[in-house]
């Protein structure tokens, strides 16, 4: 059974308009009807381009998108698509889906070249690592110049930059992306202007324009806790949790932190070379949900005002920003700085000084394989970084705090910027 879940016509129209404007051209043709359907029988997504009115008589276009295998970098995108099939309409998921314009341009390219079936891996790779060709359906093909794409080299401190040129060739260059033992504010020249735009925006809009008066950023928590972050997991689910899964969740939270903090280790006086992440407690609706040994963690069955499992407020930094945990039955050493709130019925994610909340089906995928798009995006909010729903920094490209899938240079430099400014203000 095929079921339509999204009309992509408007997406195509916006994508082609943006690229045409970047070339100083008017949009050459109206968009063709473009829809996405899901096949329950075949377990595929199918893109259908209705082109009955094409005077050339060319047939409609189809593209089947197969589910990716496990342990690949594209599970997050697949999860986003599946959330539409399930009817998820939360703003963050919708915006991230609609604004990944290059993805849809790649879809159109595959259809136009006559391909009928691709994997999501091939599809995403086609726009991440090759010269981007924009297809104005069956009318003409143009090559976009000055599109810079980044492919990180695994296990290296070097990034490879690919840039298409007007004659269709690709220029490549590499440079170090994380120089350690730096001091002062010295961003790369190509990022300086958009970083300033971001900081000016954040510093004028956060906390009524008084950004430094807020004292519970993730940075404040780390400094108060001597380089350690204590988590309490809020398990808003009736599913059981094995001891192995609990260990895996703690390891994944550590991994997500490491990806962010590699940007500040050794940078501008950051005093720690490793941030330790420790899960000190779990909040569940029933203790029997926690299988195996629970030695070393606090088990809470408290409920919030909506009846959702909650870690004891007496032990939470959000509730005791003065550091007074005298009412915590677990003891001050076992207080929690942030909650990792995993919810069955929550759409997408949310983040703040209190921690991160993630839809369980998304979290289930992200703990199995990279990228950790939602988890790391919400962590960014914990450390003061903004969403970009209503504006874009000039020339920043795709980055995880906007519609990107992974932490890139621009995210890392925004992260450094927050540390640099807070360090000066706090006297750290």
Q: What attributes characterize this protein structure?
A:
five-stranded mixed sheet, globular, 11 helices, six-stranded mixed sheet, 31% helix, 18 strands, 428 residues, alpha/beta, Collagenase (Catalytic Domain)
Description:
By secondary structure, the protein is an alpha/beta fold. The chain folds into 2 domains: 2-141, no CATH class; 198-426, 3-Layer(aba) Sandwich (Collagenase (Catalytic Domain)), CATH 3.40.390.10. Helix content is 31%, strand content 22%. The radius of gyration is 23 Å and the shape is globular. The model is unreliable at 1-34, 50-60, 68-91, 93-105 and 126-179 (pLDDT under 50).
Strand order of the largest sheet: 13-12-11-16-18-17
Q: Runs with pLDDT <50, length 5+?
A: 1-34, 50-60, 68-91, 93-105, 126-179
The CATH architecture of the largest domain would be: 3-Layer(aba) Sandwich
Strand count, sense and barrel status of the largest sheet are: 6 strands, mixed
For the CA atoms, what is the radius of gyration? Answer: 23 Å
Topology:
Elements: E1 2-7, H1 9-22, E2 34-39, E3 44-49, E4 61-66, H2 75-85, H3 91-99, H4 101-112, E5 117-119, H5 120-128, E6 133-136, E7 140-143, E8 148-152, E9 158-164, E10 170-176, H6 189-205, H7 218-224, E11 228-236, H8 243-261, E12 276-283, E13 298-300, E14 302-303, E15 309-310, E16 338-343, E17 349-352, E18 355-359, H9 360-366, H10 373-382, H11 409-426
Parallel strand pairs: 4-5, 11-12, 11-16, 12-13, 16-18
Antiparallel strand pairs: 1-2, 2-3, 3-4, 6-7, 8-9, 9-10, 14-15, 17-18
Helix pairs in contact: 1-4, 2-3, 2-9, 4-5, 6-11, 8-10
């Amino acid at each position: 059974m095929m079921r339509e879940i999204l009309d992509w016509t408007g997406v195509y129209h916006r994508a082609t308009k943006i690229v045409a404007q970047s070339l100083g051209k008017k949009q050459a043709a109206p968009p063709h009807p473009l829809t996405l359907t899901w096949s329950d029988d075949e377990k595929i997504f199918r893109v259908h381009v209705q082109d009955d009115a094409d005077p050339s008589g060319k047939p409609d276009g189809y593209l089947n998108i197969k589910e990716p295998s496990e342990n690949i970098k594209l599970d997050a995108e697949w999860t986003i698509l599946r959330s539409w099939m399930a009817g998820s309409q939360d703003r963050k998921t919708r915006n991230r889906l609609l604004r990944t314009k290059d993805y849809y341009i790649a879809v159109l390219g595959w259809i136009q070249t006559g391909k009928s079936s691709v994997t999501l891996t091939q599809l995403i790779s086609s726009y991440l690592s090759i010269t981007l060709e924009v297809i104005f359906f069956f009318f003409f093909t143009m090559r976009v110049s000055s599109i810079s794409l980044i492919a990180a080299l695994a296990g290296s401190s070097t990034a490879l930059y690919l840039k298409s040129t007007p004659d269709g060739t690709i220029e490549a260059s590499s440079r170090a992306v994380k120089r350690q033992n730096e001091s002062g504010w010295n961003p790369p020249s190509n990022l300086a202007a958009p970083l300033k735009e971001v900081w000016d925006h954040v510093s004028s809009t956060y906390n009524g324009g008084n950004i430094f008066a807020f004292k519970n950023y993730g940075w404040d928590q780390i400094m108060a806790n001597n380089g350690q972050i204590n988590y309490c997991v809020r398990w808003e689910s009736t599913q059981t949790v094995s001891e192995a899964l609990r260990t895996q969740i703690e390891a994944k939270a550590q991994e997500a932190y490491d990806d962010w903090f590699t940007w500040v280790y050794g940078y501008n006086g950051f005093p720690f070379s490793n941030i330790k992440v420790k899960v000190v407690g779990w909040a569940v609706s029933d203790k029997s949900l926690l299988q195996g040994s629970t030695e070393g963690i606090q088990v809470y069955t408290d409920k919030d005002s909506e009846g959702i499992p909650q870690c004891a407020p007496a032990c939470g930094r959000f509730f005791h920003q003065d550091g007074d945990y005298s009412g915590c039955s677990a003891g001050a050493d076992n207080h929690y700085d942030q909650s990792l709130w995993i919810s069955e019925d929550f759409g997408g994610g949310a983040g703040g000084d209190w921690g991160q909340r993630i839809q369980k089906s998304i979290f289930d995928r992200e703990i199995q394989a990279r990228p950790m798009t939602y988890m790391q995006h919400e962590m960014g909010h914990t450390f003061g970084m903004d969403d970009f729903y209503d504006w874009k920094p000039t020339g920043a490209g795709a980055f995880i705090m906007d519609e990107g899938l992974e932490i890139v240079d621009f995210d890392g430099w925004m992260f450094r910027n927050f540390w640099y400014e807070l360090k000066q203000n706090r006297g750290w």
